[in-house]
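New to this. Explain these tokens.
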Amino acid sequence: MSFTIISIIALFAIGAIAFIFTVWGKKPGEPIDKVDVVPTDCSTCNGDNAKCEQECMMEAATKPTEYFDDEELDDFIGRASDDYNNQEIEQFAYVMHTMRPEEVKAWARSLTLRGINLPDPLKDEFVMLTEE
């Protein structure tokens, strides 16, 4: 019983000492250090963090698929990325070039979730658009 009481008193003493050093040790008017919590949602993913991209993909998989006025691309579900002819590649290029640059990553996620592979000839251009 006495061990429990001594432990509780010691815990409060350590807390009081920590409080004194952090709050009372500051000069008047000097702000107390705060920890900034950065929200991690998909709008903050910039491609540098693979974990962020993976979490966004998993989050997107739980929501209804987002379309970018590209319903005609659903005809290519299940096709290999090297199995497109020039006319089909142009369909993808047209959609990619008519959207805002900040939408391109979300569009690629949408294609992935729908089972559509981006044609190989457009992949370099896609990377350039997402890095801008």
Residues 2-24 form the longest helix (23 residues). Residues 42 and 59 are 9 Å apart (CA to CA). Helices lie at 2-24, 50-61, 86-97, 104-113, 120-131. The chain has five helices and no strands.
